[in-house]
Amino acid sequence: MWAIPHPEWTQHGIAYLQQNPIFRRKLHSDSTADVNKKKRHKDNNKESKIALFGVLAGEGIFDSVGEDAGVDVDDELRKACQEHPNAFAKSTQQQWARILCRLKSKYTSYVKWLKETGGGVEDSDEYKNILAKIHAEWPFWDDLHLWWKELPNYNPIEILNSTASSSHAANAAAIFDAQLTATDADDRLDMGSSFDDTNEASSTPSRWSLSPPPSTRCSSSIVAKATQGTQNAPLPPTKSKEGKKTKYGGLLASSAKQGFNAIANLGAEAECIDKRHADRDKLRAWELDIKLECTKLERRKIELEAQARAHNSQILLQMMSMVAGSSLCTLGASPSFGTVSHTSGASSSFGTVPADVPATSGSMFGSDFGSDGLSIADGLGITNSLGEESAVAGSEYYFLPE
Fold it and tell me: What are the start and end residues of every segment in region (Disordered) (predicted)?
């Protein structure tokens, strides 16, 4: 009916703004002219627009009850608005902008219609008839006209002249009142009785063709149109299909262009997002490959270190075996070697033991000087010259590797 989806929600919002004028002025910016006219402080908005639309959605539209606004709001929708206030605030801000655009266009068309009937004089019968038709077609007229009637961007027909606080429509109303109260008004009803038949028809003045008094004379085209007489008043404007096509065709073309641009932007953005995701997947794959190679290298390092330790152990055992074998040969050639003292600094065929080395450091060799000669045991299975395994007797030798 009003080309607005969910008109009951629009009614809820307008009713809330009507009941809260301070909130309305903050939401739609307070008028400086209204502030000066009413001599009040200007209501400045210290909050963000999205916060105000959140209040409008939560308290004014989706929290309305049937008795207050005429139509109940679904409980599920009301609950969703309470749980997700930010989403409803943003959606309400977008939809309210579209609704205001449509309401402004409709209001402006009605204002033009009214102003074309005698300059918008509210006392005329034609004005009242048109206003009744507007009320039947559009239930938002009274509230919106109360807000917008003094705003030039909403009501551009109400043009003020050079005198402050005066308008051509008011001057036209004064002219009507002055002429209707004239004493010879009844005589002018009979157009043929007041003039000579010899006068030309073009020189016959009409009922409302008298010049206005000097104090109310105005050169505006609106006043001239108001003084032409009610019988010559123009009919309500009829919208031709061609004009409608021209008007709305341009809007549709502009909307379609904006829609195509938005789709193209979304496609480009989606392509960029896909490319970023692909690059991220490649980086993750490279990272996994690098980690796998590092793991392989660490494992190889551990294996090489183990092999190196085993190789060093073999070399050490071979060196110890060689040293032990050479020592046995040397001791066997010198049977008068005697017992080697445990005292720090004593010398043997293995070299001199340093004074600062404790008796328990290094590799310990036990020696037993029995009747069968010298025997040395280092835990490696070394036997004496008789082929028998010797027991450790307590004397200790030190093996100091290079």
Answer: 189-245
